[in-house]
Design brief:
Rossmann fold, 2 domains, 5-stranded parallel sheet, alpha/beta, Arc Repressor Mutant, subunit A
């Protein structure tokens, strides 16, 4: 039974999420501010955190930053909640390592589905294992680590899965809709801008390997093998 930590200062919303997540079969705990959330995590590391951006003491971004900078909690997925829908908020959240971003008001049912989708993310299927080395990029699926020119790079769980998906489908064009379905495990009705934001961040982290992920204008993306150019 996965353990979900719900962090929000809106107590009515916390109660609704707590009830629905328990009904969906999850174990839950709650916190109403950032300090309380960090204390909860210290006492018991959750399997996923639902984290409001606007908290009364420290911001959700700061909580996310502390979680992702700690070796014990960096792999814990974070779904950010906010009443603000500007793109800059999503970008900042993704830069800090958030795995998904939900703008209030939202459907509780959709959020529960997003929680399940994020928790299902893992290594690629047996019949579609990624190449472990492409150009300067190397990944270790078992250790969940990635390297460029022998130097380890810090990827979020979602970025690692996105990179693994590209490496498992080398040379094949991946539409934004396909990536949403296979990496995010979400309907293509979700904005495809989410894919573009994550690919941009992944490219920046790949350094010398950034150009191996090509944009196929009007379609999506493709990873190329420099050995075949």
């Amino acid at each position: 039974m996965a353990h979900i930590l719900i962090v929000d200062d809106e107590r009515d919303l916390v109660q609704v999420l707590d009830f629905n997540l328990r009904q969906a079969g999850f174990e839950t705990s709650t916190a109403y501010d950032g300090e309380q959330a960090l204390a909860r995590v210290k006492a018991k590391i959750p399997d996923l955190v639902i984290l409001d951006l606007m908290l009364p003491d420290i911001s959700g971004n700061e909580v996310c930053k502390q979680l992702k900078s700690n070796a014990r909690t960096k792999a814990v997925p974070v779904i950010m909640l906010t009443a603000r829908g500007e793109e800059v908020d999503r970008v900042v959240g993704f830069e800090l390592g958030a795995d998904d971003f939900v703008t209030k008001p939202f459907s509780v049912r959709e959020l529960v589905l997003r929680v399940k989708a994020v928790l299902r993310r893992g290594t690629p299927e047996e019949d579609e294992r990624p190449r472990e080395t492409v150009g300067p990029i190397k990944i270790d699926p078992q250790a969940h680590r990635a390297y460029v020119n022998g130097k380890e790079i810090d990827l979020t769980a979602l970025e690692f899965k996105l990179l693994g998906t590209f490496m498992s489908r080398l040379g094949r064009v991946q539409t934004r809709e396909t990536l949403l379905q296979d990496v995010w495990e979400m309907s293509a009705e979700v904005q495809t801008r989410t894919v573009d934001t994550h690919v941009k961040r992944l490219r920046e982290k790949l350094d010398d390997g950034r150009d191996l992920i090509e944009t196929v204008r009007g379609v999506g993306y493709r990873m190329i093998d420099p050995a075949e150019k």
